[in-house]
Write a structure and sequence with these properties.
With 215 residues, the protein is of the alpha+beta class. The chain is built from 6 helices and 8 strands; from the N terminus they run ββαααβββαβαββα. The protein has an 8-stranded mixed sheet. This is N-acetyltransferase.
């Protein structure tokens, strides 16, 4: 199957929906992911990259995402008491039709939804989109020292490929070593079944927010 770049259309699941990002989403994204703990985990280049306020975030964030190289989505809750609320952003990008490869990244979620249905269903929607459009390998990566993110990627069923040293400059002048994972088309049926089983375990329970400190 020849790989083709997916159109920028909404991806709708049971718990979340991924809508193509617009500039109008930026103030809501600041509220959701412009938090110190999100940047401290490595988002956007680390803590030193965190903008001072919503206006600075809007000026910085739009150029953070790979618009020319892929599709960026704002993540919204799709059902329950928080229906329609913005809880994060993610991208499916770096499309290489010849090599049939793509990359899921530039992902950040509000700490309120860490450990909920949000990430597994978002990844299910993105992986399904990539593989249904003929891609054979999808890369997912994170900072090598980001234990929470690495554990979440491994729980998806992605295979650890190794660490690329000094791969990405950070805002404080240091460099990030990057842990690289992937899912290939041969593994997709098993990975998909695992994600579907995880989501089924939540049943009819909607996405419910975790409590978090002010700030």
């Amino acid at each position: 199957m020849t790989a083709t770049r997916p159109e920028r259309v909404p991806l709708v699941g049971r718990y979340v929906r991924l809508d193509p990002l617009t500039r109008d989403d930026l103030p809501l994204l600041w509220e959701a992911i412009g938090r110190p703990e999100v940047f401290a985990s490595g988002y956007g280049g680390g803590s030193a990259a965190r903008p001072a306020d919503a206006e600075a975030y809007a000026a910085w964030a739009w150029n953070h995402w790979p618009h020319e190289r892929g599709n960026t989505y704002v993540v919204r809750v799709a059902s329950g008491p928080h229906t329609g609320e913005v809880v994060g952003a993610t991208s499916l990008a770096d499309f290489d039709e010849h090599r049939e490869s793509a990359h899921i990244g530039w992902t950040a979620y509000s700490p309120r939804v860490w450990g909920t249905q949000v990430n597994p269903e978002a990844k299910l929607l993105l992986l399904e989109t990539a593989f249904s459009h003929g891609y054979g390998r999808v890369k997912i990566q994170t900072g090598s020292t980001n234990a929470r993110s690495r554990a979440a990627i491994e729980k998806l069923g992605a295979v650890f490929e190794g660490v690329v040293r000094r791969e990405q400059p950070l805002a404080d002048g240091s460099w990030r070593d990057t842990a690289v994972f992937s899912v290939i088309i041969d593994e997709w049926p098993t990975v998909r079944a695992g994600l579907e089983a995880r989501l089924a375990s939540w049943g009819d329970r909607p996405v419910l927010y975790r409590s978090m400190p002010e700030g």
